[in-house]
Amino acid sequence: MNASSFRDCQAWKAEGLPLSTSSNEACKLFDATLTQYVKWTNDETLGGIEGCISAMKTADPNFVMGHVISTGLELVSTTSSPRLDERLAAAVRRTVELANTQDVSPREKLHATAVELFSQGNFPKACEVWEDILLDHPTDFLALKFSHDAYFYMGAQGPLRDSVARVLPHWKPHMPLFSYLKGLYSFGLLEMRFYDQALKEAMEGLSLTPEDAWSVHSVAHVHEMKAEVDEGLRFMESREKDWQASDMLASHNYWHWALYLMEKGQYEGALQIYDTQVFKRCKASGAMLDIVDASSMLYRLEMEGVCVKDRWRELLHVTQPHTDDHVTVFNDLHFLMVSLGAEETTTSRRLLEGLQELAKEPGENQQHQVAGSVGVSVCRAMVEYSQGNYARAVELLYPLRYSIVDVGGSDAQRDLFSQLLIQAAIKSERKRHRKLGRCLLVERDSARPRSPLTRRLMQRALALHD
After folding, report:
1. Which runs of consecutive H residues, i.e. helices, occur in 277-397?
2. What pLDDT does 465 receive?
């Protein structure tokens, strides 16, 4: 990436997305920040996202869209809670204040409103505002990407696909970042189970931009959901040099690689990826995606009967500071996996009680509403499972199996909860539950034929209760 190639005031205006600042430098740094966000990469030659944001604020301290992108990025990273973090809350207030006291365009005002709504946990309303922007400005990549992230956190699979589908005709191949739309669209398609179309879009994206780590990740999902384990492994290996450079997504792509190995029962290989890539990167970055991946990996391995030794305690150091955040239910479920794995009862109790408290009066906070309808019960089921109360875990999880999508994430990530229900059902002392476990495995086999994990679980179920 070359700093001179980024768009200045005039270039943004020419694209129908004028920015309210007279600083060409601020405009170019805004573009550089947006570009790195879309590419999932901190470009060190530019000083990374943080360096660009810092320089942008120096170039024009009152640049509204500069505040929108910097505050928005911190919020969608979900690593700190504006409820607890006064600095972040103040940044949100400042963004709104600047938008309201300056002569800025309606589009920029809407961007500030969306950031404020998202900070309050009102993800659906924030998405409505971003969609409102896209209606008039379909090439506003920031609105598209922020809404994409928010839909992902809500498990809103339809909107994830349709939001991109609606704007595609307005984009032309010569436009900056055009190829990255393919990966975004592909991801929405695969979450709606249009696997062949998803694969086609992702591969088109990769033919234009081989280093597009999100398109790689989309292909990884397709192979995962179809249990095409060997194809998935071959693909990840053949593309490793391309996506490794994407520091924000590399760990997640390694996680997908490890899932294939776990599916095959190659636990040592999976643990090696955990140690050398996933945990190492998670510890260094503190990024939420890396943290939840590390948590879910250990949890899956342990469900499979693999001893993960002291890894839980090491990971607890990373998750424990987030115990009271409660930004997303999805994050909370993963923090709980770690405190249960590390047998840190006080932390587990604190997390669950905090979540229960917020679920009582969620107000406009969509995530706290989901905590009440789904999140708290899933947390309780995990606690019961960890204590060997398998029947109780089944009773809590089974009624929620079709609403678990509300906790957010992808089908591949949520599969952990399907596995948990099956494991609990197989291990339950109740005959009815064990029968249910076998039925769930038959169902799983029809959705993902050729899955070695399903076969293993079927054998286990039959061995336990001939």
Report:
1. 279-285, 288-303, 311-319, 329-341, 345-360, 366-370, 376-386, 390-397
2. 66
Radius of gyration of the chain (CA): 22
Q: Which amino acid is it at 199?
A: L
Q: Which domains does the chain have, with CATH numbers?
A: 1-153 (1.25.40), 299-466 (no CATH)
Distance CA 318, CA 277 (A): 15
Structure tokens at 8: 């200045």
pLDDT for the residue 323:
98
The answer to whether 123 and 367 have CB atoms below 8 angstroms apart is yes
Block residue for tokens 């971003």: 130
292, 410 in Cβ contact below 8 A? no
| Inter-residue contact 215 to 186 (CB < 8 Å) | yes
* Residue 340 vs residues 145, 287, 299, 321, 352: alpha-carbon distances, Å: 34, 21, 10, 15, 11
CB 374 within 8 A of CB 124: no
Residues 6+ apart with CB under 8 A from 318: 282, 283, 286, 291, 294
Tell me which residues of the chain have a pLDDT lower than 70: 1-4, 465-466
